[in-house]
Design brief:
Helix content is 41%, strand content 22%. By secondary structure, it is an alpha+beta fold. Helix 1 (3-23) runs antiparallel to helix 2 (28-43) and helix 6 runs antiparallel to helix 9.
Length: 582
């Protein structure tokens, strides 16, 4: 065995010695450093640089190593090798096994497609040795399907000579081993990222289940959505996330939760009404990846009006072509369990500055599915809860719901020692309506009365359907004079209102109203809000009976309830029967 073969064998043994360390690497940066260092220490080179091909079709140095007695690696700021320049080198270079070699004295180095992109490095051999300082030696790093993913760039051979075929074969074998290790590290990183996403999702779902009893009492959808986008951003590696839901029955998008977006930017988004059609440029079929839409602004320009409506951040100071740009976007649709679109998640500013890989997008989609499921469940629960607390005919709160809200509001008034009043409303001669016009037309009247009463109240006033043709209205912060005035205003408004019927003509409707206030209660009756509410209801009902007994279509309050007043007060109307208008 000649000397050259022995050296190659020793180098191969050195390579095998580091193979285990390479295969055990779990971090891409650490792996590349180990590879470049091993080329220097075991393969006989003073320096080694590893270049990785990035999405912008440029090779950028990701690792560099040098021996202690060799000149350190010094590259200009922003140094890169365009793929086209390397391919030009391949066309004119000599092949040594799997390595690409271009002698530093070759006139081809003056080629304008090559010269600007490669730098000379000091060499022990000097300009007159076999190895010239300007010489280029590259060993390709190949991925799946022999796709070029990087370059191994050994430099300054310790013996000052060109690699012979045996040494070049060792370099090629080492590059193949490095490529496999790089693929494994990347696969492990992808799997780890997916597991982090799934674990974050699992923890989120667990927290939702833990909070389920609380949610059943009072759903805090916005707070839950805010937690979801925070988890999605932090687990997914993004700086900004916005979640928008479609308004029921429309194509209008409403911002419901954000992460990493300033309050000023959120206000900007809320001030600019967004429609689903506005997002069409960001959801082009040709930009689809999995079931999301990844927009590269260099390929798919975004209309200026949409840019103006959206909250677009500033360009990063370290931005370079091929990195994520503020005009780039990732949009993930949200679908409910019936496949209906309910909203969008807009994701921006990946922390690493790079476009997400397909596996990353799929993991984000899996988490988005959980968001959509939670939103659907909460929406469905709210709908059912609303049905349970709402009168089906008038869409007003039912008796139980009204009483619960009234007790809460009355308790606040009692705490502040503020007055409050209750109106008990009854539709006059409603049985005649049902007997003469039928129950369907009676329902029309009830809906119309309920709607007119509701729209006549102040913010903070409460109304509910008590049962049959009876309604109850709670007026917080309202003493007796204000309650009587409000009741009379309601009575007049209903009297002047005609409810259209499905058949001929119209029906003139009137109401009677009984009034009671907290001033009517004894001090002992004001110790408990629930008991006080029941007592107010009984007193207002008694006053209503007096109004009906006095001729109907009037407001009544029983002043005999107060010891300082020994009379009853009734506001007559001058006509109190339902009558059909021809």
């Amino acid at each position: 065995m000649d000397k050259s073969a022995k050296q190659a064998l020793e180098r191969l043994r050195g390579v095998l010695g580091v193979a285990r360390s390479i295969s055990d690497s779990h971090d891409e940066g650490e792996l590349l450093d180990l590879i470049s260092t091993s080329v220097c220490e075991h393969l006989g080179f003073g320096r080694c640089i590893i270049y990785i091909l990035e999405p912008d079709c440029n090779f950028r140095a990701r690792s560099a190593a040098s021996l202690a007695n060799a000149a350190p690696v010094e590259l200009p700021d922003g140094y890169k090798i365009p793929l086209a320049a390397y391919q030009r080198v391949e066309e004119v270079a000599e092949r040594i096994s799997g390595a690409v070699y271009l002698d530093g004295r070759s006139p081809m180095l003056a080629d304008p497609e090559i010269a600007p992109h490669f730098v000379s490095t000091p060499s022990r051999a000097g300009e007159h040795g076999e190895w010239h300082p300007a010489s280029l030696l590259f060993v390709p790093l190949l991925g799946e399907g022999s796709r070029l993913i990087g370059l191994l760039n050994p430099d300054d051979p310790l013996d000052g000579k060109l690699p012979d075929p045996d040494s070049a074969l060792v370099l090629e074998s080492f590059a193949s081993l490095s490529s496999v290790a790089l693929k494994l590290v990347r696969a492990n990183s992808e799997a780890a990222a997916r597991m982090r996403m799934l674990e974050a999702q699992r923890q989120q779902v667990a927290r939702l289940f833990e909070a389920s009893t609380t949610l059943q009492r009072e759903i805090q959808l916005d707070a839950m959505l805010a937690e979801m986008v925070r988890t999605m951003a932090e687990a997914g590696g993004f700086s900004r996330v916005g979640l928008m839901l479609l308004e029921p029955g429309s194509s209008r998008l409403r911002v419901r939760a954000t992460y990493g977006i300033s309050p000023e930017q959120v206000r900007h988004l809320l001030d600019n009404e967004l429609d689903l059609d506005d997002f069409a440029p960001m959801m082009r079929p040709e930009a689809r990846i999995s079931r999301s839409y990844l927009i590269d602004h260099t390929r798919f320009p975004i209309p200026d009006e949409l840019v103006a409506a959206l909250s677009v951040p500033e360009v990063r100071s370290d931005w370079k072509p091929g990195m994520w740009h503020p005009l780039d976007s990732l949009t993930i649709p949200l679908y409910d369990d019936e496949g209906t679109l309910i909203g969008l998640i807009s994701i921006d500013e990946p922390v690493n500055g790079l476009f997400p890989e397909p596996y990353h997008v799929e993991a984000l989609e899996y988490f988005a599915d959980q968001c959509a499921n939670a939103v659907s469940q909460v929406t469905r629960f709210r709908r059912l809860e609303n049905l349970a607390h709402t009168d089906a005919l008038t869409r007003l709160p039912n008796r139980a719901s009204f009483m619960s809200r009234m007790i809460h509001s009355l308790a606040e008034c009692m705490t502040r020692e503020a007055p409050a009043s209750l109106l008990f409303v009854d539709l006059d001669h409603f049985k005649e309506v049902n007997d003469s016009y039928g129950h369907l037309n009676g329902d029309v009247v009830l809906r119309a009365i309920g709607r007119r009463l509701r729209t006549s109240l102040r913010t903070g006033d409460l109304i509910g359907r008590y049962g049959g043709e009876e309604f109850v209205i709670f007026l917080p912060e309202t003493p007796l004079p204000g309650a009587l005035a409000a009741a009379e205003k309601l009575r007049k408004r209903i009297e002047s209102h005609t409810a259209g019927l499905a058949e001929d003509g119209h029906l003139k409707a009137t109401i009677s109203i009984g009034v009671a206030t907290t001033a009517d209660l004894e001090p002992s009756e004001l110790q408990d809000a629930a008991q006080a509410a029941k007592r107010l209801l009984a007193l207002a009902d008694s006053a209503l009976y007096q109004a009906k007994a006095g001729g109907r279509n009037r407001v009544s309050h029983d002043f005999s309830l107060k010891r300082s007043h020994q009379y009853r007060f009734t506001i007559p109307s001058g006509g109190a029967r339902l009558r059909h208008l021809a």
